[in-house]
Every structure is written in C-alpha cells, then in structure tokens.
Amino acid sequence: MIDHQVRVHPSADRLPREDQLAWKLAAVATGTQEAADLDPAAAAMAVNRVIDNASVALAALLRRPVAVARAQATAHPATAPGSTVFGSPVRVPPAWAAWANGTAVRELDFHDTYLAADYSHPGDNIPPLLAVAQHTGRSGADLLRGIVAAYEIHVALVKGICLHAHRIDHVAHLSAATACGLGAMLRLPTPTVYQAVGQAVHTTTATRQSRKGEISSWKAFAPAFAGKAAIEAVDRAMRGEGAPAPIYEGEDGFLAWMLDGPEAAYTVSLPEPGEARRAILDTYTKEHSAEYQAQAIIDLARRMREKTGPLDRVRSLVLHTSHHTHHVIGSGANDPQKYDPTASRETLDHSVPYIFAVALQDGSWHHERSYASDRARRPDTVELWRKISTVEEPEWTRRYHDPDPGRRAFGGRAVITLDDGTVVEDELAVADAHPAGARPFDRDGYTAKFRTLTEGVVTPDARDAFLDTAGRLAELDTAGLADLFPAVDTAAVAAYDSALPKGLF
C-alpha cells in the first residue's frame, strides 16, 4: 500500500492533477485487474454481496420509500436496452434504475457495512454498477471488476477521512467510490474518471441531519441519490465535461470548508500498481436489520436475557460503549426521539436503547416485527426502554479504532442493576456474524439470509435459479445479468404502487 498525504493547497500552488487525491483514486480504479486476475477471496466476497443486496431489496419491495422510488423510476421507461428494476417488468435508464434499486437495497438497513474513521455501506455501490452494466452491454466479469474497485476506493476513503465529525453524511465517500467503480467497469481513461470523481463529490456533499433527530425515509434514498449522481457525473465526464478541481485539496474545496479547515491533512492508503484489491474482505454484512453498531448489542441482549430473570425487576441498564455508538445511536446523541414510542422506523433503528430493550424481551430480532408500531408502543417495552442509557468508555472507543481489523470492536459492556441491587453484566466485542465473531457469515450464511428474506416473495425455483446465476457472476454475459433480478409477483407490486399519491412524473 502507498500512503498518500492529502492537505489543502492554495490556488497559487497550481497543484498538478496527478498529485490530487481524485486522480489517485481514479488511477487505482482504472488499474484494477481483469476479473480473472482478481484476488479469488475478494471476487467470491463480491458475489456474496450481490446475493446480500438482492435479499434485502426483495424483502423491501412493498415498503413505501421503495415503492416511491420505483414509481419515479418506471415513469421514465428506457429505449433499449435500459436497466432492470426490482419488482417491475419495465426497463428504465440506468440512473433511474440505480435510484430505485439503491433505495430498495438500503431501506431495511440490512446489508453490508464498513466502520473506521467514518461510516459506510459499500454495498450501495452495487446498484448503480449493475444498472450501468446492463445498459452498456457489459459482462458479469466487467461488473465484478467494477465492484471490487468501488469497494477498494470506498474503504480507503472511510479509513482515511472522517466526515461525521463535521456532520457531513457518509454518501460523499460513496459517490466517489461509485464513480471509480464505473470507471473500472467501463475501462474508462484515468482523466475521465478523475473528472467524474470531482463532479460526484461536489454534488453529493450533504449534512448528517438525515441521520439525526427525527430520521425520515431520506435515509434510504440518500445512497441511491449518490449512485444516481455518480452515473450522471460519469456520463458528463465521458462527454468531455470537467469538475471543480482540486475537489479535495482546493482552498475553497472539500477539506478546507467541509472538514478540518485550511490546515487539514489526511493520509489515504491506496494499493500500489498491480497490488491485489482486497479491501472488500475488510467489510462485513448484517445478520440483523439495524444500525451496524447495534449488531453486537442485539446478540449480547439475546445472551443476557437468561441471566436477568423477569425484566420488570430491572432498575437500570447502562451500556458502556464507544464514542460512535454512544453519540450516534445512544443516549449521547441527545435525541429525545430515540426514546419516543411513536418514532419512525428509521429513528428506531438508530436507537440502541430501543433495540436493546426489544432484543432483551424477545430474544430475537425481525426486520419488520421488531419495528412495528404496536411493538414500539408496548407499555412494558417503553418502561424498560426508558431505563436504558449509554456511556462512552475510552477503552471501547480505542478498540473501535484499533488498526488491526482482527481486534477492532463495535460492541460494548452491559451493566444491568436489578431492583434488589443485584448486578448482571456481560460484554460482546463484535457481532456473531462478524468475520471475527462466533459464527462468521460465509456463502452458506448469505444464501440462508437470501432464502429467509425472500420467503413468500420469490418462488423456490426462482430462488434456486438466482443463487446459481449469482454464483456464476464472472461467467455471465450481458443477458445473464437480468437473471440477478428474480421474478416476483409484479401484479401485487403494481397494485401496491398504484395506491400511492402521485407526484410530478
């Protein structure tokens, strides 16, 4: 790996583009090996993530934000060839397919994650890449190359540049990674990808209010917006249009005004020419439909429930955890909405007190039932929920940022005090499904997740056909990419969509 030092430069420096971070990202993308030469483990993990995305997208087909995005997309039917939308027989332009499918993938907060200096869901790169692959006649091997490249860039940015400390939403890193993945997939020249990265970052920098206070359905739309913007940026760059530059290092640029200011300096580590792209192997998926920092907490609650006895005896429950968990999904966020029984699903899946209460009571977690309004309003749940708080513990914060992925921890220590003064405590560093957890997800884990989430949505034969197709991703031709969208009851989907209010399109 090469450590690239990135800092703010005044315009008078005339920083050569080859020295700019956007160029270096583009060069890594365009230098990504052919699919046959990719690291075998990285290629296999890319297939797992295609399966994972389809699982959660299909499970979310009849959720309102997904239906809205699908309705907007299908109002723009494409001239051939176009791109496929989950749940619809209508092909649409690739940017609109990325919009609809990206929203479907993100809606349940149930696909992959990578946490380092910042947050990310690198699987959000896949919908725009797949949409463009279909529309431009690319093969499965091309798509695979693009996915691996996008993950490489995304992980590098998330390791090197913290956005959330400045309340900038993490999709700014996503859009750059998607532009790079598209460049790798389409075999674009480095100067073209460089311009696309600049445009994508410039147009997708947004605040983290989308994940604060009363969290709305925009949380599901946000990565889809970034993917759509990245496609449009690549399209403009291919037509010869330029971008603000230097987008990261400029004195009025991203680092200087959005992040650490004129004295900003960061280190972004990128692979050397010819070095294997293995960053996807550092990422991990979710077993539970909730914010990633809650994954280990759900598993911990399931483990502790047998030790506590009747939960009406709980006087208090304090979760000692990292800065991120305490301040983003814990009581340290100072969001009263995180304790509100009438809060939106999006808010509840960013409330670790709620999540711990329900998991402790039920001993399980379900992507729909655990968030149902009657479940959130249950009096015994509300009573327990409001006894739960979080505190930051420096050791958990240190473990959260440990440079060794094998020692990095995203969990916490729960201290439960009962009404007689008895204290019950336990801790869990990582979720059971994490690569360092009790039962890490392998291909069988992804396959089981797909079968569970698509029960009643996709026929058994169609499920088997999809899994076979996904497993042969590197061998697929363009026509075969359509088989990555399993057949569903499109009449039922259309009936649901037709009941929605109409918009402009």
Automatic annotation (TrEMBL):
<feature type="region of interest" description="Disordered">
    <location>
        <begin position="325"/>
        <end position="344"/>
    </location>
</feature>
<dbReference type="Pfam" id="PF19305">
    <property type="entry name" value="MmgE_PrpD_C"/>
</dbReference>
<dbReference type="GO" id="GO:0016829">
    <property type="term" value="F:lyase activity"/>
</dbReference>
<dbReference type="Pfam" id="PF03972">
    <property type="entry name" value="MmgE_PrpD_N"/>
</dbReference>
<comment type="similarity">
    <text>Belongs to the PrpD family.</text>
</comment>
<dbReference type="InterPro" id="IPR005656">
    <property type="entry name" value="MmgE_PrpD"/>
</dbReference>
<dbReference type="InterPro" id="IPR042188">
    <property type="entry name" value="MmgE/PrpD_sf_2"/>
</dbReference>
<feature type="domain" description="MmgE/PrpD N-terminal">
    <location>
        <begin position="33"/>
        <end position="265"/>
    </location>
</feature>
<dbReference type="InterPro" id="IPR042183">
    <property type="entry name" value="MmgE/PrpD_sf_1"/>
</dbReference>
<protein>
    <submittedName>
        <fullName>2-methylcitrate dehydratase</fullName>
    </submittedName>
</protein>
<dbReference type="InterPro" id="IPR045336">
    <property type="entry name" value="MmgE_PrpD_N"/>
</dbReference>
<dbReference type="InterPro" id="IPR036148">
    <property type="entry name" value="MmgE/PrpD_sf"/>
</dbReference>
<feature type="domain" description="MmgE/PrpD C-terminal">
    <location>
        <begin position="288"/>
        <end position="466"/>
    </location>
</feature>
<dbReference type="InterPro" id="IPR045337">
    <property type="entry name" value="MmgE_PrpD_C"/>
</dbReference>
